[in-house]
Design a protein that fits this description.
Blueprint lengths: L4 E3 L2 E3 L4 E2 L8 H9 L4 E2 L6 H17 L2 H4 L4 H4 L1
Parallel strand pairs: 3-4
Antiparallel strand pairs: 1-2
C-alpha cells in the first residue's frame, strides 16, 4: 500500500511523523522509526539546552533568596 504524501513541500513515504521526544536523541532509533512506518522525525529544538539552563538559573536565584532577584520574576515564583 502506497502511503506517500507531501507535507510542507516535503515528499514523505508515510503521513506518520514522530514528534520531538527523548527517543529522537538516539540516532539508532531513526532506523527503527522508519522500519515501523514513520515518514519523518521532528528533532528537539536546538535551543532546548538554553531553555533548560535559563530555568535552572531562575530556580537557583529564587532558592538563594536574594531580594533583588525577586524583582525580576513574577510574584508566584518569588514566594
Amino acid at each position: 500500500m502506497d502511503l506517500s504524501t507531501r507535507y510542507l513541500g516535503l515528499s514523505l513515504t508515510s503521513p506518520l511523523v514522530v514528534s520531538a521526544s527523548p527517543l529522537g536523541l538516539d540516532l539508532g532509533n531513526f532506523r527503527r522509526f522508519e522500519d515501523l512506518g514513520a515518514g519523518a522525525v521532528v528533532l528537539p529544538s536546538i535551543f532546548q539546552e538554553d531553555i533548560e539552563n535559563e530555568a535552572d538559573e531562575i530556580e537557583r536565584l529564587v532558592a538563594e533568596g536574594s531580594s533583588e532577584a525577586f524583582s525580576y520574576f513574577p510574584a508566584h515564583l518569588a514566594e
